[in-house]
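Researcher: I'd like a structural prediction for the single chain below. Treat it as a standalone chain; there are no partners to consider.
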Amino acid sequence: MKKLLLYLVLFTSFNIAAQVPSNVPTNGLVGYWPFNGNANDESGNGNNGSVNGATLTSDRFGSNNSAYDFDMNGNCYGCPGDRIEIPSVSSFNNSNISINAWINPTAFYWPNNSNHAAMIIGSSAECSSTNLRFYLADNGTLHHSLNSGIGNVSNNNMVSLNTWQMVTLVIEGFESRIYSNGVLIQSFINSVAPSFNGCLVIGEHHQANGHWY
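Model: Treating it as a single chain, here is the predicted structure.
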């Protein structure tokens, strides 16, 4: 099994007003999922998630029903698994994108996954969607991709097993940066600027030809 995500936060360059904890920046906030007993978006934007199979568990503080557990044991590659579908996020269609999540993995990839990867968040075929992925893989690496021309991987040992850690992806124009626990671990210059439009899914990459982890 794998515990994944205390909360997930999405940003773009848009400004909104929202009632969120003081430790969560509100400038450009698109979605905030603290998983307080559900997968509702508490940013004020109404991007509530739909839970499919994932179960509530304790967070890094030991608080019950404050994180989701994604269990892919026995799941076939390409088959639907534990996930949280998020509807189309129109305000996330921007060249400046940030994704922040707390994760506690027990393995670097799901069983039966020949790609040896475990998705944190990806795009979803629930609506016409751009190809976005942010995931961990063998040797504790962090990966991200978005359309053709953006696909990068961090150095080894950037993610630890069986411990809570904060991982962050920031894309600004042609530059991408990956952070671990608030510390910059890798930066990249991409051949194109990002453009995302569509739905998101936590815990997998939902494409038209299947559910990929």
